[in-house]
Design brief:
The chain is α+β, with helices and mostly antiparallel strands and about 150 residues long. The protein has one domain: FAS1 domain (Roll), CATH 2.30.180. It is built from 7 helices and 7 strands, in the order ααααβαααββββββ. Strands 2-1-7-6-5-4-3 form a 7-stranded mixed β-sheet. The longest helix has 14 residues, at about 1-15.
Amino acid sequence: MKKFWFVMAVTLSCGGAQAADIVDTAKSAGNFTTLVKAVAAAGMIDTLKGPGPFTVFAPTDEAFAKLPKAKLDSLMKDKAALAKVLAYHVVPSKVMASNIKPGSVMSVQGSPLSFNINGSKVHVDKATVVSADVAADNGVIHAIDTVLMPK
């Protein structure tokens, strides 16, 4: 019986380990709680836990706090609109900060994201990257200071 429990414990401890995907990385970072709630509300958890690779320009909790409460509440209740906004923050490839060039790249949502570099600051549309290259197993997260709205 002891051997059985030892085998079960080893199996659970080895097999139960989760990869640090985009969602888990965002959760453990601690400053993306609103984003993680929004991703869940939009039904996008499985997608962002998928193989990717993804680059997520992730609004911080402070970025979400800039939105009027009524706007955020409305978005959180409208799954389709929320999914559209969140998909606008995602590029379907892994792009490290050093590889970002001025210009535009198509988002998963289907509209282009515009990039500008001013000194050492990277800007995505009207947002500024405040923390770059947060690595995940299926991509990378770049924290931004503003929630982006698709055009």
